[in-house]
Amino acid sequence: MAPPEARLIPNDHPEKVRMLVLETDEPHPDTQREKGSFGDVLNELFVKAGEEHDPKLGIETVMQYVVEPDGGKIPKKEEIGDDVHAILITGSVYDAHGDDEWVMKLMDLIKYLWINRPDIRFTGICFGHQILARTLGGTVEPNADGEWELSHTAITLTDVGRSLFNLPSTEKYIYLHQMHLDHVVDPPSSEGNELIKSGTKVHVWGQSEHTGVQGLYIQCRLFSTQGHMEFDEKMVKRQLEMRVEAGSVKLEDADEAAERADWMHDGLIVAKAVLRFFHGDDDSVE
């Protein structure tokens, strides 16, 4: 059981953003033992992304496990300090379209911060991407065919996607590992939406054959991804193992997906783009 108290990973880089990671799941026990929680894994990835930027971009990570049925705690709105300017919500085995009490509390917190803390920029991965979309008025449902999107996947980019990832017009795709049945069916819109100012563009930055909304972008506020920038080969195989043991993924589907787990993916490119978003480097992308 994860401890409910927040944990901090400091970073002394002068140009840093303080990111709160709301952990909505725990990794495979072997991954937890080797790399720590999902927040630890993401912090390491963002630190690497910042070190490779010119000039370097720093990040300081605070982590809070929020699955209350499993001993976590959703922060109270007054506990989100003025020094927090980025929030990341992780992936989860829970349904983003469900009505679990802790999920509804999480949505209430997101809504409050979206309205009252315009300085905070939001990102989410898989479940996090879906819960942000739902909170802002989008629709999240399981895939109609009951098919999972698993492991290494090609994502077709829009022009906005290419701009966010600093890719030339000749680049049509990025590749990320996937691990989901649910997806965003209808993205949020500014039309008749009290949370999104009228006329604000809500961009879908990419799509795959399985999933029409692979990520969302709202200038200066939101940059989410259905795919997992933080996964590597071991993590993919271990997450597949957990899904098979839980009976949610068929063994033959997991075996087929595991064969692609070592393929090159663009998690670091996505992490760099999200970090630039946190720092405001890409605010010109509308």
Automatic annotation (TrEMBL):
GO cellular component: cytosol; nucleus
Keyword Repeat among UniProt keywords: no
Entry superkingdom: Eukaryota
Keywords of this entry: Glutamine amidotransferase, Transferase
Annotated Glutamine amidotransferase domain residues: 81-233
InterPro entries reported for this sequence: ChyE-like, Class_I_gatase-like, GATASE
GO molecular function: transferase activity
SUPFAM superfamilies (alphabetical): Class I glutamine amidotransferase-like
Pfam family, one: GATase
Name of the protein described by the UniProt record: Class I glutamine amidotransferase-like protein
The species this protein was found in: Aaosphaeria arxii CBS 175.79
